[in-house]
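Figure-free illustration: sequence to structure, shown twice.
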Amino acid sequence: MTNIEADVALEAARRFLDGHFATLESLELIDDLLSGEENTHAQLQSDLENASRATEALRDEAVDISQSLRDKALALIDLHSEVVGAAADDNVSAWQFRDGTETMDLVATLATELQSYDKLSRAKTYIDALLEVEQAKQSARQSLSTNPQGMLSAYSKLIAILAAHSNSGSLAPLTSGSATSDCSADSPPQPSNLLEYIKQSVQEIWSEANEAAASAQSESLTKLGWPAKMDLSSAAAVGAFDASFSTLAGLDHITRAASDALARCGLTLRADDAPPLPLEHMARAVDIRMRYHFESARTTSRADKPEWWLSQVLGMLRNIVPFLESHVQRLFNGTTLPQLDARNEFICLVLPVVQRKLTHDRSEYIRDGLVIAHVVHELADFEHTLRDVYFYDGPSVLGQFLADSALFSAWVEAERANAVESYMQTIAESNPFELVYEDDMLGADDAKPSRLAEKVVLVIEDVAERYAVVPSCMQRLQLLSTAQFPILIALVEDIEGEIDEFSRISLAFIRDAGITNAIATKPTTATQSPLVSQLARLTSWYQTIWYVEEAADDWNNSATYVDMWAAVCQRAAALGRNTDPRDWRVNCDEWSDADRALLDETTHQSLANDDWLDGGIWERSIGTLRELKQRVLDIISRAINKDVVGQLRAYRKKNNWAAEGIGANADTDISIELSGLLPELSSVLAALETMVPSLAFSLLLRQLAAELDTFLVERVALAHSFSQCGGRQFAKDIGALSQLLGSSTARGATKKLKHRVLLKSRECSLILACSLDSTTAPAANDMPLSLDEWGPTVISSDASDRETKLVLKKLGISNLSAKEARSLVGLRVDFAELTGCNT
């Protein structure tokens, strides 16, 4: 041996010792190992000598047979020459020769010898292959626990033998037909089954090597604390783990490298997408522990408490991820396997444990669909932790769980049933529209929820909160359509039913007839007004609708529903120009996979323009609620107006406006017919003011003022004759009503109503209370001119409407028509007498 060869051998020995005997304790085992290796070497040498002797004997026998066949062939050639030569002679017939029988016997004998030679040649090939296989198997088995590298080398050689003989044709059957005899890896095979025997041998050695290395790795991991908190203080355990990890990695690499050759033989030891073998076995201990927690009678396995068993998985990851990120990743980087993130790959190996637990509890989920919502939330949190803390980038656990159509359908149905049940329980209560909070607990212009409104909003928001984490937009839309919209529709229908029932009862029956017709002698309190309770009922509907409408408006602008609306708009754009995205609910239960892909892949950036910003998922619902709210407000207005006008019946029938001396009593400020109405109306308005927002209250006041204005002008001022005293009494009444409608108790914009209500009635009172002539004492806020100064011009038949309007405008009258002004002047009995006298 040269110096260079000696150096190379020394270096190889040094690398071997560094790789397998890194500690002092392991070095002490070298003598034992060397002794074992020497015994192994001696045994192998003996086996090799025996095999060589058997092979030499077979070779000698084959040579003898070959020589015999050669001699037979030469004799046959000579005979053939004689036969051909004889047949060529014209005097001798080709079919008539004396030695024909001997020739045929020779041919038969030669054929038999040739067949024997072929069988012996192939038998030698079988024996050679069998010897190689047996030697490789024996070498691999002897090296399983003591020499991992030797075992891998023997395993690699065994695969090479299989690959070399699988397609060479050298192992063809010795006899025609298919072999029917059985063979096993433990007994010599029949020749026709040798290829199958080699395959079984490869598979057997693979299994034995895999189990041995896995067992060694498991034992070392157990010493390190796996899969609980890792303790790397034991150098021996760490070294044993490293060695077993290296063995498994080498075994995996050899198998993957030979996957094509193995596939040609119909043998699949490792799938193409199989995880690295060391990590696969490391996950086995985790799987065992999780089965203990997930499939036993422990509290951690409760189906309705997924957070308990998911926390076990996260706790396990907290313990072992540092070990994976540092030590295991370093070992993996030193292997010949394709590089990957050991932490992420291991999490992928653990997640099937979670999937199996979900499958195990599937029947319980279907029985109680609302548990699915809880599981979905916990899975979302679990996956969020995996991705944000451990940088997991594999398949979505939640997405795979919700891909089960039966599970999702059970959840949707449970959400629908629970929402309907909650709503029906509330609507069935004695007074579902009773307001929840006192007036002083909320702002003046804040919606005050009723019990039903609060329940509707809570139910809808609870459903949304449960499905907000669902990754599929189509599934979120299906939950929205099935479990949320029906609740809002039920609310609208129930309020419409209440309105219809209220409308069937004539508003004339709201007020007791005795109260209506009686002339009250003292102010009526709010609690004595029958109208207040009816207004409270009506405004509770209004507040209910308003509260839900404001909530729906907030929902429409929230990120969850904005994203869903964007997806719906994108789908509508894809379907065609005439498709209205607000019609998305039509046939949503029949959406296809194409619809799902389109909805789930939509982003705001994928929309062609900003038209989608003009609407929203809840747009039509909000519109319906606004229309219903306005309908209730109109009913409130009609109820107040009809009640007030009904109480003015006596005032309308008053017929002493033309009497002299009316209103002269200083103690009588307003007409006695109004003495009961004004305080009650004041209390009703004060109560109403707390029941509706300021804008609605202002609108109601304007409508009431317009109704009163028309009533006072048409049914009182233009329907009776007046003296100046009667006109002044009418002016006092109009002033009192104006003061009431525009009093400072009204909020916000309604404070400005004082000088804008009853405009025509006040102008009527100016004409009716105007001084007859300059000798008559002027009334408060009287006109600058007396009636005799401008009245004749107004009633003159020669005056046009334009001239009359100019005169009236100078007098501060701009709302009355010329015809109405003429009628009012004509209704002044004292002026009629005056003009009659003049005439």
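We now fold a second protein in the same way, so the two outputs can be compared directly.
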Amino acid sequence: MTAMTRCLDRPGFMPRLSAHHLLRPRLAEPLLAAQVRVKLLCAPGGSGKSALLAECALQAPVGCQVYWLALNGAVLSPLDFCRRLAHNLGVPFVDEATLLLDLSHWQNPAWIFLDDFCRLPAPDLDALLDRLLTAASPALTWWLGARRRPLCNWPRLLLDDELLECNELMFSPAQVQQLLGPQQTLDSVMQFSGGWCAGVRIALLGDGHPGKTLLEYLQHELFSTLPIELAEAWRVLAHLPRFNPGLCEHLFGFGDGDQYLRDLQALGAFIQPWEDTTDWLQVFPPLAQLIRDEPWPAKRAWHRRACQWFTTQEDWQAAFEQALLAEAYEVAVSLLQHFSFEDVFRQQNAVLLLRLHEQHGDELMLGSAQLVGLVTAALLFAGRFDQAGVCIDQLARFAPQPTAAQQRYLLARWQAQWGWLLHLGGDAERSRAHFLEALQALPDSAWTSRLMCLSGLTQQALLRGELDVGQALNREALCLARAHGSLVLEALLELDHAQLLEQRGAPYRAQSLLETVQAMLVGQRLKAGPLVGRIALRRGHLALRQGQDALAAECFEGGLTMCLHSQDKRVLYGFLGLALLAANRGDYAQAFIQLREAERLMQQRHVPDTVYRAVLLLVSGHFWLQQGRAELTLEAMRRVLRHFRGPCAKQAPPATLELIPRLEYLLVLAEVKLGCADQPIARLTALLETTRQRGMLCLETELQLVLGEVAWQLGDTALARRALQAGLALAARCQVQQAIRELRLRSPGLLSELGLETQASPSGAAENPLSQRELEVLQLIALGNSNLEIADRLFISLHTVKTHARRIHSKLGVERRTQAVAKAKTLGLMG
């Protein structure tokens, strides 16, 4: 904060900066350092242009005169502008030619600030400005603040390296953080303002009605300056997520629509590129949301017209969304005929399908087998299994089909959908039979159904510990998705692949895989929010397992937000991840709050307890053991394991491959601590042998550490030492630091007592975990090179450099570049 006033050695009027002004060196320093004659700040009203110009003016070098013209956006004639400029410069005014001559002969360094240049189109005034900039002496530097870009010969100035243009004046989150009061949060202020200066200031006023204040500001600063037809057009565009000249022509009339759009852009009416594209535009999102929240009866008619245009363009997603906004539900449902299974994972389609089904029921939503499939997919995604079962049974309405082949196809679709319902409900045998029978009958044209059957079989193989079988099934499904160019379904299948890699003891490879998949989705501009949410949660799980708590927290929080928004049942794992992070810090109160919030949400959304109960009790059991409350763990583990034993045993949820073995070893730990264990070493050894045969290295790591802990508590020091050494070696090899951390939380001092504390991480250059390429990257990092510079030096892509850096951090158990360099030097990996 600062309250800067005019310096005494500055002639003429100088603005005074507000006592609430926040210096913006990120913007001011490049402007001050640029050796150009013209510095143009072009941005909508309220962007802080005047304040930034004043900030720069007050830092003018000694010996440089500063002249400030506060033009207030007025439309001046060229003659009046010349008079004002001459008066401000202290030169006599005769006519324009004389003024231009005086400017061309100017000797002493000076800065001329033209603040809030004419807001409305004024070709004559723009032409005068162009002549002034062209004729003026190099001793003069022009600083121009404007809402619209004057019609000057900017390309010529750019080619001559005499122009610096700045049009991105938003506050960064870090800057907003400095301004927050005790009752304000960064997220709320940024969501309200988007970093726009006026919006930030209004949000910080604390008057309780920021939206009303902002509307009043817009009325004065924008609507009052626009003709009625442009104000109406702007309001319409604010209700659309994106628009282009073609859509504007359809909405406002041929010839008028394109002109309206160009006029609004020229007037700086908060219109900007949509997601960095060159062919689509949007109204600045915080202002658009403000306008959409206001009641406006006419908006339904405009949404209907937008729906018509998107339909003619065969943009079915946008047409569907506009039909819903127009409350034309029958039209919206008719557009769903163009949707496929993968569209459930795009935008907010899952939520929209659920809402349509709730509000309009079976009669409207289940009019075809294709609609039944879409609604079923959304219900399974959200964990509403009872409703999904009722929905699947609606396929019987479409039997018999006209031909035997069509009838077999309908039955196969029923089997595939019912197979998934059984799979998610834990009925593995019946589910597997349905999947296999469906695969036999599904035609090649039903490739999405075939792919999902393969995915279900992959998950079941992984749950049985048959990693090779799971890998083969997953590869077949991935080939199918790639052959049909479905990046969305490929990403969905890579989640199964990541679980496979993790079980084989390569969580860092799984992390890298998911980072690549996420980058592919973003690079293809696919709005797969529900899928990206799942990827984020899985990345958080992998980061936590590798001991990267900061990255894990970032992934869990981001994934939690996205999954809450899309009503994904796997939101559960966001709460579990945050609970585990809290326990790592010793904050068990917060950990149990997260678990209670997860349970409350699952019950609120009517998710069957088979999805979440066992997982919640597993994590609670970990926490109770760490707190010394083994009796609670014992009771919970005995109760929950009944569901996974015997002839009617349930299958574990697909996202928790290690659930049952972990429940088993927690039960052993609790029994040993309470002195009531029956053959604990034999039970753990049997678990360990089964796990080793299956090649599940991460789980083997945990079991070795648990075996060592139990042996130590039973007094078998030799076995304890051997098991712990094996577990620590595997932990270093597989980078599963969380297992070691949980051991320390359950039995503090155990590793130190046995002299094994230093073996928790790799040591010595002979055990170098880094590849040669990773060492090359790390050496360049140590020399201070940026990722981009490393990419250039090694002739690899920037993404590849980031992947190598992530793997380095994972293998060394660190989170930052400086830590990686220090750790590598300590281990003797580099000089």
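Summary for the second example: The first helix runs from residue 25 to 33.
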